[in-house]
Amino acid sequence: MALEISRRSLIRTTGLIAVTAPLVACGDSDDPARGGGGGGGSASAGEDLLAKAKRQGYLTVAIANEPPYTKVEPDGTVTGAEPEIFRAVVKRMGIKDIQGSTVGYDAMIPGLKAKRFDAITAGLFMKKSRCAEIDYSEPTVVSTEAFGVKKGNPEKILSAADVLKNKDLKIAVIGGGFEEGILKEKKVPKGQILQVKDARSGAELVKSGRAAAFLLPTLSLNDVAKTDKAIEVTPPIEDVPVTGSGSGFRKGDHAFVEKYNAELKKYKKTPEFEKLMKKWGFDAKASREATKAELCKVEG
Ligand code: 6CS
To answer: CA-CA 20 to 30 A from 215: which of 53, 136, 157, 232?
Structure first.
């Protein structure tokens, strides 16, 4: 029920983007977001995550550089709703700093398990299969999905049902991302799904005509369309799930997650949270109404 309420309030939400307080990013060798700091840091044997964070003074988080969820500036500073919420909450836990590592969505859970970083703060949406593998916090950002299409939406693609009706339609999705899972769940044939690396390449596939549409979070597509006038964003899609993300942690760090959730709950009641969500175009009320239990029921 909560998710339905949030869908209605979410549909009214439109995306706004602004750049804010710098966080330092580090990443793979070819990553433009290189900044200070190294990977996940190593905990001494048996040391828990909070003790490690306080000892080394920071936590390393996986990000994707997909505004407004995460954004890496040319000089390597990291902003975006997810890292900024995480940074504000861990500061309340006595952790001074955060360092970002840019990773593809499909590599986030394996990388977390391999201790390449300490947490995921990228808008990695909750769903049953992911909730089985990692320990999510309570929700931070709740939103909707849309299609990026050519101006005028020539194929009139507005829903997953429209994709199923026309087997000639190719749909771009980020490989291993939540949207690929949605299409598979809807039984869209594999031959209609084109995997891309990121938002920019998905938009290029639509503009070239190789894909009829690009399925991605509404606010991420709004960000692409801000600078790429050839892309039009459909209204939020009614026949796919509302998306909700939390920060992702290793199953063994549950003691940290409990402390994190307690601080997150208090933080969500502050004007600072309201202001941060508004700045990035998200709905604070929907985030307060959603629960991890509900979002972890999403199939896919
Ligand atoms: O959770 C995911 O996999 C999706 N999340 C975002 C913020 N963008 C695309 C990605 O597929």
So the answer is: 136
